[in-house]
Amino acid sequence: MSYAPNSISRSTAPPGVAALIVATEPGRALLDVIEPLVRAGVSAIVVVDDGSSAGRKWVLDRICLEPTVHLLRHARPQGRGAALKTGLQYITEHLPHYTGVVTTAADARYAASDVVRLMRALHSSPRLVILGGAFCGNDGDPASAGSGQSLRTRMLGLVFQVVTHISLRDVQTPLRALPVELLPLLLKVPGDEHDYEFSMLLHLAHHGYPMAEQDVYGGAERPVGDSGRMSSSGWLNIARALLRSVPLVPLPRVPGAESALDGPDTVRRTGSSKAQQTR
Which letter does DSSP use for residue 249 in this model? Predict the structure, then answer.
């Protein structure tokens, strides 16, 4: 069975799953993310503006025209982790009846079909954390996707595997499906910068919460990656995340959570050093 990877015509978004986007100095790319999600029928799109300048007001005014967009604004930049927490807190308070939320990037690196694919998987398995695991090549083979990863991503993946004995293809992916029952507890995970997302995975792994990876294809024009180097402050944040990865409040264990498939896609289960693939 074949289909266009970035097409959303074959399926629409399921009810009760929100999208969460953190925007910092957004431009046209944010519209390229939101507009196809609206067409796909996503019932709630929560956008957190992390203290953008007045020059970005036109973008934010434009997305507010969509009735399904919920815009939250920080008066000053607080960091990606803090912005994610603002969005998760909003969903916890205002959309508690939802199944969960899929976080994604504001730079159009992921196609709307990728976001919808994770939404459908979460809707089918509402107690499973699902990560957008890798960018597939033109032939749809995720095995070729790792060649485009930066040295930083590969190193963080290795560190994560050493610490948790769990192998993940991309520990930095912002494309994540999170069950609503986890949100109050994830809000307690420390971190206000990009280290928050790494801390989140460590937190989940150390408490045995089931995770899976879903193949994704990415946008038509994936943003060019950086050189793979991380600043000293970035590595310090990661070191802090490793030290504080066991929180005072444990996450609930969910044995036997079922993975979900959206058509021909592959969900790669984690939870041990030897992840399994199911079709």
Answer: S
